[in-house]
Structures are given as C-alpha cells and as structure tokens.
Design goal:
Helices cover 26% and strands 19% of the residues. The chain is built from six helices and eight strands, in the order αααββαββαββββα. The chain has a three-stranded mixed sheet with strand order 1-3-4. It binds a DNA duplex (12 and 12 nucleotides) through helix 3, strand 1, strand 2 and strand 5.
DNA sequence: CTATGATCATCC
DNA sequence: GGATGATCATAG
C-alpha cells in the first residue's frame, strides 16, 4: 500500500480520477470529502464508515491534507473524530479515540488552493507519521482541558479558541443538528455535535519536516 | 442520528 | 488573510 501511495507523487487529481474511474466534481463545494474518497479507493482502504483505521490490519489512518504549494502550509484544519459528549466516565487520554486515531497516520499532501482547478491539483509525496512523545504531551494537555469542559457540564461554553493544538468545532450537517450532552448542574441537554480538529500550526510542523520532498 | 470523508464562507 | 463557526455528501 505504501508503495502504491508513493507512486502517486506528482500525478494530478484529474489523472487519478480517470484511473480510479471516479467522476471528478466541478469543485469541492458539494463534495468536500471527494479527495479522501478518491485516495481511499485507489489505495484500497478497508474501513469505509466503520470505527477503525482505514487500514486496520496495519493500524494506519489515511488523511489527505490540502497544502499551499508556495508556503507549504496546510490550508485547512484536520478533522479527527466527533467528540464524545456523554458516557465519558473512566475515559483517559491513553484510551481516547483521538489518540487511537492519531497514533499512526499516512498523510497525503495535495495542492489545495481554491483558485486551482481540482483536476490540475497535484498529489505530493505521502508521509507516514507516528505520533511522538512530545507531540503527544501537547495533544494530551489540550484533550484533557477540552474533555473537562465536556464532562463538567460546560459544553455550551466551548468555542474554537480553546486548545492550543487540538480544538473543538461544530461537526454537523446544519446548525439544527442536536446530540445529547451534559449541561449546567449535570442536567441532560441537547446541543450541536462537536468534532476534534488539529490546528494548522500542528499539522504544519509535521509537513514542514518533509516539505522538500513534495510539490516541486 | 452517527459515522465516514472534509472544506466552505463569514467575520474579525 | 486566517480562524471560527457552519455546512455538504453518503452509508447504515
């Protein structure tokens, strides 16, 4: 699979879409996950919409990441998973889904400037990344701060400003989506679902270590 | 609704 | 410009 991923370096999304027999949309406005689906399809990911790594047998999570090819900086934050708002008793960073998802990621950088037609965007060299102890410490600190707010009934006070590397933002189809959570005084409430995202400054560091290898 | 895949678009 | 808050598509 890694060899197959490496072989994608330099190809455009237009070329890959033809090869993978996946129709290319005019833009990503209505197909935000299209690039991810395309790469999964080409690389033979197994998980679909199940809760396990994309390549379960080898414990690798696949993530495409849009990059500005001049600055080499990510253009978007990276979604990790939906935040559990209830049933968190006994959950620690060590057993968290965030840590599980991020323990090993195959990042595939792709030119992502909106001015560039989708078909012309080039695929960069994949980067197999293992969460190191320093990074983990940072994420753990953010995760604990955020989970405290959730568990202590302060979910409605959460904004994307919380968390240095990892933060929470809405994750829903629309603003009226509701899910169960804990409100003030421990009272059950319904609120908008939240997702964990990696800030660009975190992913930028990962990408920077390898930027010389991709996108010319 | 929740999970997968993310980016859009507004506001500061 | 860039981050925050909002949103899109699909499967089960």
């Amino acid at each position: 699979m890694l060899e197959r991923a490496n072989s994608l370096f330099g190809y455009t999304l237009g070329e890959l879409s033809i090869y993978a027999k996946l129709e290319i949309p005019p833009n990503l406005k209505r197909d935000k996950g299209w690039i991810g689906i395309l790469l999964e399809r080409y690389l033979g990911a197994s998980a679909k919409n199940k809760s396990e790594p994309d390549f379960a047998s080898i414990g690798i999570e696949l993530k495409t990441i849009p990059i500005d090819n001049r600055s080499k900086i990510p253009l978007e934050t990276t979604f990790i998973c939906v935040a559990p708002l209830i049933g968190n008793s006994g959950v620690t960073w060590e057993t968290s889904y965030v840590r599980y998802k991020l323990s090993r990621v195959l990042w595939i950088p792709i030119e992502g400037q909106r001015t560039m037609p989708l078909a012309m965007r080039r695929i960069g060299a994949p980067l197999l990344w293992n969460l190191n102890s320093k990074e983990e410490l940072h994420l753990k600190s953010d995760w604990e701060e955020l989970m405290d707010l959730i568990v202590l009934g302060k979910v409605e006070t959460i904004t994307a400003h919380h968390g240095e590397m990892l933060h929470l933002r809405p994750k829903a189809s629309h603003g009226k989506s509701l899910t169960a959570a804990i409100g003030k005084f421990g009272k059950p409430i319904l609120t908008i679902p939240l997702g964990f995202y990696l800030r660009k400054k975190f992913t930028a560091k990962i990408i920077a270590r390898y930027y010389r290898y991709f996108l010319l």
